[in-house]
Amino acid sequence: MNSRPTAAQPAEYGKTTEFSAAELAAHPLFPAIDQDLARHLIAIHRETPKLARLKASHRKWLMTQSLFTLCLERNEDDPLSGLTISRFIDVATSIGAVSRNTAESFIKEMLTYKFLERIPNDRDKRFQILTITDISYDAMESWFNGHMKGLDRLDGGNRFAVCANDPRIFRMSQPRAADRLVNNPVWRHPADSIGAFLHSDLGGMVLHELMSHITDFRTADDRIRVAQISITQIARTYMVSASNVKRMFKRAEDAGHLTWGDESRKKTLWLSRGFIDDYLGWQAEKFAALDEAFHWSVGQLADG
Fold this sequence. Notes:
Blueprint: H1 21-26, H2 30-47, H3 49-52, H4 58-72, H5 85-94, H6 100-112, E1 116-119, E2 129-132, H7 134-155, H8 159-165, H9 168-182, H10 185-188, H11 192-198, H12 203-212, E3 223-226, H13 231-237, H14 242-254, E4 258-263, E5 266-272, H15 273-303
Antiparallel strand pairs: 1-2, 3-5, 4-5
Helix pairs in contact: 2-7, 2-12, 4-5, 4-9, 5-6, 9-15, 11-12, 11-14, 13-14
């Protein structure tokens, strides 16, 4: 990965609110903020679909964030620090994300697609140090900034501008937020209602697709209408089998979290209020962790 610029001083920032997850979930604008983020992540998927697939299920999200953290925590004064296959396997298995074989396969996939690269190590050739490539860095930074823009809409803050002015904030914030989320049982173990999607391959992107099609988050008979959708089109968009997508929907339908209607011979999906509340509450945990990490990073730079 190429070296990134640093700012001489942390950027000035206006008054911003450090939101808790509960405050975010209760905010009347939060559904629209999450919907904007869903569309932002869908755009990232369209630009780099292979990269987007690496965090489109919950376990892959956990692995990707942990891997990225190990890369950013590398100390240039210690050539043996940073991401190694063995360190990543230890982290991925310790948090219960995957097995050792799956973690190792994940690293190999990242190398194959050139989302990771090897760092020459002349001190001890037994250690193979890996790092993220620019395309991976840019995608994660875009993911982070998408959340900053959303938080700015809630309080008129300028988190995004501050981060754009000082790249150190992103580099400091991502590991802190990732660690907080990995150790947050609410985030690590999503509710069963949304788990039918999140634990399936590409299920996270399918949820983003559903959120992006909601035109009104107000309830009708304790359910919320999703614009007419096509399972076949969703499968084609996210390069996953239609049978896999159907299984996600069937599990949620059997549990009473969604129902299908028929309007003008076109399928209309209805999501339960509980499903929406579970999803937005879960997303609020992520936004809150990133917001706390942002404020902490700015404070650290101001004190330093």
